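Problem 3 from the worked examples.
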Amino acid sequence: MLETIIITIIICFVVFELIEHVFIPLFWFILRGRKKSNYGVPGMIGKVVEIKRWNKTEGRVLVNGELWRAVCDVPLPKGSKAVILDIEGVTLKLKPHEN
């Protein structure tokens, strides 16, 4: 009788540990794996930036506290806002932000 109780407790403990340390983390990993990253290059596309310097079709913009080189087909006034369309190397492609 005592052996049966001990074996049952051990089996319950092993099952609990498997669920806690294998199945639940695997479930959260699969669930989180579907989210799009907000960091790095993919996370920057669509972000609104502030124009710091501009000369005809290129200039510098402020993104997350850093100055980036940027280009746009139209002139953008200093202090205005723009949206990041694409990134090529370290150059941002912008379009004017519509308020």
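Problem 4, a separate protein:
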Amino acid sequence: MLLTAIVAIIMMSSCNEPKAEPVVRPATQAGRFYEADPLRLSQEIDSLLSLHKRSPLDGVAALIVPHASPYFSGNVAASAYMSLNPQKHYKRIFMLGPSHHTWLDGASVNDAVDYYATPLGNVEVDRATASRLIAADSVFAYSREAHDQEHCLEVQLPFLQRRFKEVPPIVPVIISTNDYQKLQRMASALKPFFTDENLFIVSSDFSHYPSYDDAYRVDALTGQAVESGSAEQFMAVIEANANSGIRNLATSACGELAIITLMLMLDEHYTMKHIMYQNSGDIDNHDHSRVVGYHAFAALRNDAPTFTLSEQAKQQLKKIALQSISDSLNGKHAATVSPKILSQHPALRQKCGAFVSLHKHGRLRGCIGHFGEDHPLHEIVADMARAAAFEDPRFQPVTRAELSDIDIEISVLTPMRRIQSLDEFLLHRHGIYIRKGYRSGTFLPQVADEVDWTKEEFVGHCSQDKAGLGWDGWRDAELYVYEAIVF
């Protein structure tokens, strides 16, 4: 009884403890860079968005958007935000921008607040992910001064609030360093998040303070460099512009460091698309002697269409695998797949790799696979089923008597992609393929579901147990990742 009473008192005390109030960064720029009144702000943003009634772009990975007041750059910003699909659910939005107030020689990630406030409401901060970045590399830290009065990220939030019904949590990052190696480290730390589940927004205006005509010329050169997708070309043009003698040109892009960081994450799977350009001289015929340029770009994923298999195609492949094993047991040549079946399921003609795994009463009975894209899928599955049944050196050949107890699992592999760092490897999603000289080995993605390993242990075991390279042999080997459609 006494113990019960003590427990009850403890529970009551814990229930009565006040909950910590959320930490909110106030809307410091409301009434300065944009409207403080919620109704007028909503009307202004909605009217700008309504100017760009276009279909959303496919595969938007990132936007580059200006950060002046909506009066000046809102039209260009709206053109970028209207390229987003408002129905797409993003896990989080990484917001990258320059520091206008303090020098960091690095980047500040705001993991100190729970929300960013605007007149339209609060936007949640993904503090856990922000803290992960800070822990990942010393190039990231938190500096309150970098965020408190900074407008470049805050002015983007009303556009997100009017474009999405619910704004995903944000990760606010202010970048302020001329050290290229540090920018590379930032890009490496951010790259694992540069996936379809996240959106990146880079905040930057372009030319500052040249004449109207000079702005058009210099911004065209800078814009072409951004469209190239090459950080090196972008930096070369920025330097050439600075040395061109253009009067009053203070910078070609105030967010150049954030842009470089984004461009360092791009590869051949991305294309930079220009969306719109204006400068402040285009707004109500504003002063043409001293202007600021505004570009909008989208980074688009241009991977080949995702390879998919219908349920009917999956069942057909299982029939092909079973028929191949049965024909071998009966001394027959493997039956060919009829043109009618291939016509009904064209994915079976796709050239890609596959593994066939056999299980008996839940235990592995054979597994053989083939990488590469040199044969049609239906042929690979037939061949690998036969090999798994009769050629896996770990098991005795499958007999006719046990065929009815065999369950077939097929893993169709996506094309392999070379990676340079384990940061690019996603446990449970990617399979790993390690190659060094004549030695190689792989683990399918689903192996991670069967063991309790970290990604380093996953790769270490593959290197040691599959490729025969030793626990650390993967460190100077070629690493590839792939995904699998398992059924």
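Solution to problem 4. The two ends are 56 Å apart (CA to CA). The mean pLDDT is 90.
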